[in-house]
């Protein structure tokens, strides 16, 4: 369980820090919708709870209304910062099933790595 959550946090962290040619960075950002919110209902329930309970700590807007494009672009590293602190802690406490971490990685990839 801890490993899968750590993998998810690492993927988010590298999506910004790796630069435009690094692993984990959206290569087709122009294909990610600017007019669609995040499909939060598609992520594991424990992660839905984490996104809602720590929404106040995300500096990039509101998880309920931010566009998929802005979430994936993470222009000012808000997602990376949230994932390293709030997301990781909540995920460790709330997501007990290892598969939840893997499902979360697939959710992120289905949105940001198209």
Give the helices and strands, then pairings.
Elements: H1 2-17, H2 45-53, H3 68-73, H4 78-94, H5 98-112
Helix pairs in contact: 1-4, 1-5, 2-4
Keywords: Signal
Signal peptide: 1-18
In short:
Keywords: Signal. This protein is mostly helical and 114 residues long.
Task: Using brief descriptors, characterize the structure shown.
signal, globular, 114 residues, single chain, mainly alpha
Describe the structure in your own words.
This protein is mainly α. The chain has one domain (2-15, 36-112). 55% of the residues lie in helices and 0% in strands. The protein is globular. Residues 15-23 have low confidence and may be disordered.
Fraction of residues in β-strands:
under 5%
Q: Over all CA atoms, what is the radius of gyration?
A: 13 Å
Give a short account of the largest sheet: none
Number of helices: 5
How would you sum up the global shape? Answer: globular
Tell me the total number of β-strands: 0
Summarize model confidence as the mean pLDDT: 84
Distance between the termini: 26 Å
Number of domains: 1
Kindly name the structural category. mainly alpha
List the uncertain runs. 15-23
Along the chain, the helix and strand elements come as HHHHH
Helix % is 55-70%
């Amino acid at each position: 369980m801890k490993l899968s959550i750590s993998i998810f946090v690492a993927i988010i962290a590298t999506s910004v820090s790796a630069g435009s040619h690094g692993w984990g960075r959206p290569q087709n950002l122009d294909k990610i919708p600017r007019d669609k919110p995040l499909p939060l209902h598609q992520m594991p329930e424990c992660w839905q709870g984490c996104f809602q309970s720590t929404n106040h700590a995300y500096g990039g807007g509101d998880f309920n209304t931010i566009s998929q494009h802005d979430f994936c672009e993470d222009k000012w590293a808000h997602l990376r910062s949230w994932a390293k602190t709030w997301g990781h802690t909540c995920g460790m406490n709330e997501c007990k099933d290892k598969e939840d971490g893997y499902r979360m990685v697939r959710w992120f990839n289905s949105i940001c790595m198209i």
